Amino acid sequence: MTSAEIAQDNRDEPLSVIIAARNEENYIGDCLRSVLAQDDRAGIVETIVAANACTDRTIEAAQAFLPDFEARGWTLKVIDVPEPGKPNALNAGDDAASSNARVYLDADIRLDPHMLGQLRQALSPDRAVYVTGTLAVTRAKSWITRQYARLWIELPFVKGGAVGAGFFAVNAAGRARWDAFPAIISDDTFARLQFTPDERVEVPARYHWPMVEGFTNLVRVRRRQDEGVRELLRLYPGIADREAKASPTRAELIGLAMRKPVPFLTYAMVHVTVRLRNSGTEWTRGR
User: Fold this and answer.
1) CATH T-level topology, domain 3-142+157-212
2) d(C-alpha 167, C-alpha 184), whole Å
3) Where are the beta strands (DSSP E) in 22-129?
């Protein structure tokens, strides 16, 4: 039986989509609409919004979609997680999920309509797999973020595929690679590095991922990302051996600087500024 036939047979099994949301009332609506807009190959979908320590109307905004999910024959669960921290939200979502196939989705991301159907097919093997979509960076409002993004998408890490920034899925065998999400900064990287490169799959459907706006926010988020990587290396020695994505060579950097001088300078300015100050631990979207 082919993987497509297996996926067809498994369409009656729920696919659990877990959305960690902290003060996302302005974004959760578009995210949930993109889930509802999935084509029929998505099969049965169970969506769980884990709203952690929200001080806005994220919960109410998500609950407004309950009739729409019910009309499609799908389940939407909105749970209030009082403890702050994204790992707490992810673990609460895992506890509420009924399927072993899990999709983890940030609340500010939108999915193309073919995404969940393609994920379902890619998750069908019995062996452990990690699946994500094709990353599309949303056009930023600020000039500085647009320039930064033009360089970022050319980096080997991104062009190598299966980035999984804010969006990834695992099958039952894949989810068995770790227990609860640990209380760390880089939950996405932690999950991706549970898998070797040949276990990671990127499907053609796109997911639309926004970068933070403005120089100060780019520095804050980049600083936190770097701290997250250092934390992973400190707590899980050897985990980086599974990365298998090379840093840009000197020749590649020179080539980028010549082809995209303004984006390169913007990226370099953020990179240098990050290293001028100590990192922080506060989670930020930069909004």
Assistant:
1) Spore Coat Polysaccharide Biosynthesis Protein SpsA; Chain A (3.90.550)
2) 17
3) 45-52, 75-81, 102-106, 110-111
- Distance of alpha carbon 98 from alpha carbon 121, whole angstroms: 19
Q: What is the pLDDT of residues 224-279, one digit of tens each?
A: 999 999 999 999 998 888 887 667 888 888 999 999 999 999 999 999 999 886 54
* Tokens read off for 94: 């895992």
Whether residue 34 contacts residue 111, with contact meaning beta carbons closer than 8 Å, is answered with yes
Q: Sign of torsion, CA 16 18 24 27?
A: negative
Query: Can you give the pLDDT at residue 10?
Result: 63
Give the three-class secondary structure for 169.
Answer: strand
**Does the predicted model carry a pTM greater than 0.85?**
yes
Distances (CA, A) of 61 to 71, 161, 271: 17, 33, 36
